[in-house]
Amino acid sequence: MLQIQKNKALTALMDSCLADVCQREGLEESAVREAIAQGTMVLLGNPGRKDFKPTLVGQPAKVKVNANIGTSPFMNEPEREMKKAKLAQAAGADTIMDLSTAGDLTAIRQEMLDSCPLPLGTVPIYGVAAKYILNKEDPAEFKADELFEEIRRQAEQGVDFMTVHCGVTRRAAALAKNAKRMMGVVSRGGSITVRWMHINDKENPLTERFDELLEIAVKHNVTLSLGDGMRPGAGVDAGDTAQWDEVITLSELTRRAWDAGVQVMIEGPGHVPMNEVETQIRGIKRLCMGAPLYVLGPLVTDSAPGYDHIAGAIGGAIAVTHGVDFLCYLTPAEHLTLPNGEDVRAGVIASRIAAQCGEAALGRPHAVQRDKDISQARADLDWKRMAELALDPPTVHHRRKDHADKDECAMCGEFCAVKMLKDF
Questions:
Q1: Phi/psi zone of residue 158: left (φ > 0), alpha (ψ -120 to 50 degrees), beta?
Q2: What tens digit of pLDDT does each residue of 376-403 get?
C-alpha cells in the first residue's frame, strides 16, 4: 500500500484538484483516494509546474493514451516537435513523453512544459547519454552521479513521470544473452544500461541507489514509470526468462517505492503474439500487485512496418480488456523513421480506438454509452451528432464534405438501407 502521508506533494495535489479530476472521470472521490492508497491508480502531476492538467491513470478511470515525441540525431528540429506536441493534444492524447536525444534537451523540455498542459514524461538516461554521443564518446561511460543529477534536474524542472530502467540488472542481462534472443535488448535505455554494467563491471546504479531515486521522486511527486528494458523486441522473444526476471525485480521495487510514498507505474511488453497478450498482461499485473500498467502496443505481429499503429491498436484493445491502464501509441513511422505530424495524429487516434474498444468490452459506462449514442445518430442519419461523437471528428467532416448537403452517404446514395424502410 502507498504510504501517502510520506508524499506531501501528492497529498497537497489531491486536496487541490481531486474533485475536478473525479468529475472528469465520473468516479467517486473516496474510491479514487482508496485506489491511490492501494497503488492501483496514480495521479500524475508535479506541483512544480504551472497551468498543467493533473491526470489519473488506472482503471476504472478512463484508459489513457501517451504520445512520444522528441528530436533525434538525424532530425534535430525542436520546432517540429513542439508542433507535434500540439497535434497530439488536439488528437486527444492524455500525456506526452519527450524522448529527445539531440539539441539542447533542457530547453526543449522546458518549452514543452511551458506550452503543453498535459503531463510530461521523460527518460533521464537519454539526457546523460546524449552529451557523450555529441562528443563522440561512449554513451555508457557516464558516472552514476551524472544520472542522478539529471533525474534531480528534471524533477525540479517539473517533469511529471520518468521512465527509469531499474529492473535491468546484471542477472537479467545475462539471462537475455543466454536465451539467444533474436532481437536482444531493443530498449534504448535498457541497452545503454546493459552496456554501462558491462564496461564498468558494476550493477545498475538505479537499482543499487534506488532509495536515492525515491527521495527525489517523493519530493516532487514524480511518478516512477519502471521501464521494461528487457521487453521483447520480436514476438519470438516474448515471455522469456529475461523479461520475467525484470518483472519480478520491478515487483520488489514497487513495494519499496510504495513504502516511501512514491507512485509507480509498470511498463509492459512491446512485441507479443496475439494469443499471448492475456497471459502477459495478467501475469505482470499480478506480480506487480495491480500497479498501473503502461504498455507499448503491444504489437501482435512483426510484419507490419508502416502500419504498426494498427498492429499496436489490435494488441492494445486486447490488453485493455485484461487490465492495461495506459497505452503508449505507435505511429506508422515505428521502426522506420521519426514520425511526422500526420504520423503522430494517426498514432493517437489508433490508440484511442484501442482504448474505446477495450473499455466497451469491459462494460465501462462512458465507453458503452458513446457507442450507443453514435449508433442512434447513425440510425437518425444525424451527421452532425455522429461527428461530435466520433473519436476523430475532423475526418468525418473531411470525408463528408463533397456530399455534406445529402442525408445519405456517398456510398449508398438512394440505396441507403436506413432510409429504405423509414416509411414502414
A1: left
A2: 999 999 999 999 999 999 999 999 999 9
